[in-house]
Amino acid sequence: MKSIKSLMAGVVLTALATAANATVILPGSETPLQQVINSLYKSAGCPSCSDITLAPNVNTDQYAYDELWSIEASGLSAATIIIEIAGNSSTNTFGIYDAYNGNTVQLFGGPADQADQALVSISQTGQVTTVYLQRDGNGNLQAINFWSSGSGYFTGNLFGYYLGTGGGTFYSESNRNADGADQMVAFRGDGDTIRLPGNTPGVWGSSSYILAWEDLRYNSSDKDFNDFVVYVESVTGVAEPGTLALLGLGLAGIGFAARRRAKR
Questions:
Q1: Which of 225, 233, 235, 186 is nearest to 79 (CA)?
Q2: 248 Cβ partners below 8 Å, 6+ apart?
Q3: Taking the model in full, what pTM does it have?
Q4: Is beta strand 76-84 parallel, antiparallel or unpaired with respect to 117-122?
């Protein structure tokens, strides 16, 4: 029995280690990602914001399951731009793609600014609807674009995020990227109070994430992951298929071993 337990522990630990490999993030020559996130905790004129020491560490507190996502039961998710300081920000695009058929939906384009928002929903028939909201001169949101697909445009409620750049498109699934590297890291809320650009302070809950992107191929980039930083809410990270397969094979092996032991 001890051998079966040891096998089970090994499978789980291996799967978790596979999912939890952190991507190295460097300060770079621009505003470091750590400083970008810290600023949400202690904004000017925001005495109710959480202490800066509660902010996640960008290298050690990365969320593991950041490749594929699904919208929660409400069926509606919002994305809010925190910052974009890439050299080609005027042409970068950001959106979601279907995990199975690869169809894409753009949420933000080059003209998008800090604090702009986009709403996206996926119906049970695979219809995708988006509303793009932009801040006016007074900081108020105005709906400026609406788009809706036909049924079946998405296979279901399983998608990834992408960043389109002049040098190509990068995906939240690392195996879709040219060199198989991570181009995006994620950080999950745990109840801290933060203040997003353009908004009043609020709770950063467990179904909300900060996604931080590197807009150059990782192995030839400065690895600062501050080129496009966005807050997404009402979504859930989904374990990568490879991790699920590893767990499944491990559990199947354990079941086989248990059956053989029972027959003795």
A1: 233
A2: none
A3: 0.83
A4: antiparallel
